[in-house]
Amino acid sequence: MSFTTLIGAAIGSAIDGASGDDSSIDGAIEGAIAANVVKAVIPLALTFATGWLVLRGIGKVKDQVFGTSTAER
Questions:
Q1: pLDDT score of 2
Q2: pLDDT tens, position by position, 13-40
Q3: Where are the membrane-spanning stretches (predicted)?
Q4: Exposure string (b/e) for 32-71, b if CB count within 10 Å is 16 or more?
Q5: Global confidence as pTM
Q6: For position 28, what pLDDT does the model report?
Q7: DSSP secondary structure, 21-44, as one string
Q8: Nearest in space to 5 (alpha carbons), one of 34, 25, 41
Q9: Which of 6, 32, 40, 48 is the most buried (most CB within 10 A)?
C-alpha cells in the first residue's frame, strides 16, 4: 500500500467519521479507492494534454511553413 493510498484512506475516514452515523471503515475504503483512481487518471490526463499541445504546435508550424488557404479557414 502506498503513501498516497494511506493518505486517501485517512482523509476518507475522517470525512465519513465526521457525520457520526456509522463506522468510518467504509469512508477509508472509498478514500483509498479514490486515491488510486486519481493516481491513474492524472498521468493519463497529462499525457493527453501533452499530445494535444504537440499536435497544436505542429499544426501552427505547418501553417507557417506552407501557409493556409482561404478555403481552409
A1: 77
A2: 887 777 666 677 778 888 888 888 888 8
A3: 36-55
A4: beebeeeeeeeeeeeeeeeeeeeeeeeeeeeeeeeeeeee
A5: 0.56
A6: 82
A7: SS-SHHHHHHHHHHHHHHHHHHHH
A8: 34
A9: 32
